[in-house]
């Protein structure tokens, strides 16, 4: 493999919480352990879900925890022209189509897309807003996750496809489109992220194939839940990380990652240096979920 390039790509829906710090730390340590580059990208493509000032808070938290990235921060909101160019290319090569299906229509087909609009190569003439979907053509997607092992997308029932939205009806670019284009353009070849989006990897694989690129290697971590079993997230009111407790936060995240614990006398920079040196993927849990009660920090 060429030189390791990894990234952390949060959405600015709120400040970082323990679950997002845990993911950022894993991505950072994996990249630094393998002498790689670690990038920061802000996935700010969904304004209705974003919180004012969240981007700045995310950056402040990463800096306070000494998770320093390489190169300039990339903002997806500044890359619309690039996304549009790729959409035009996908249309020109027959890889995409316009879809005017309603949510009500699609609700009757929870196991896949029924293909109603596959013949729509141009915007609908009836004036409806249309989404854009990628054609998947029944190709079976498999990949080997660096932590979870062999993964295979289940076959759809006859008559249904895996075709998925790459530009929404509200004209916002879909996550699947933007993340693949950005990872290609930034040369990302290792992605460390949460297990809750493992299924997105199959969709992204279709898009990489359509664009003539090889997907990166993936490592999907267990998702962190609170003691009550709910995923740590803004929607579930997960508390924001306290930047004044950075060393304690890092040690808590290291415990959740099941990594060797640095000596307690080390300061934050030296704690991270110790953890970079001793990082080992083999210690990571392969469970789908961990709770904060699993934290056994020493």
Automatic annotation (TrEMBL):
GO MF terms held by the record: ATP binding; glutamate-tRNA ligase activity; zinc ion binding
InterPro entries: Glu-Q_tRNA(Asp)_Synthase, Glu/Gln-tRNA-synth, Glu/Gln-tRNA-synth_Ib_cat-dom, GluQ/Sye, Rossmann-like_a/b/a_fold
Presence of keyword ATP-binding: yes
Positions occupied by motif 'HIGH' region: 10-20
SUPFAM superfamilies xref list: Nucleotidylyl transferase
List of residues binding Zn(2+): 99, 101, 113, 117
Keyword Ligase annotated: yes
Keyword annotations: Aminoacyl-tRNA synthetase, ATP-binding, Ligase, Metal-binding, Nucleotide-binding, Protein biosynthesis, Zinc
Source superkingdom: Bacteria
Chain ranges for the short sequence motif 'KMSKS' region as given in the UniProt record: 231-235
GO annotation, biological process: glutamyl-tRNA aminoacylation; tRNA modification
Binding residue positions for ATP: 234
Biological role: Catalyzes the tRNA-independent activation of glutamate in presence of ATP and the subsequent transfer of glutamate onto a tRNA(Asp). Glutamate is transferred on the 2-amino-5-(4,5-dihydroxy-2-cyclopenten-1-yl) moiety of the queuosine in the wobble position of the QUC anticodon.
The name this protein goes by in its record: Glutamyl-Q tRNA(Asp) synthetase
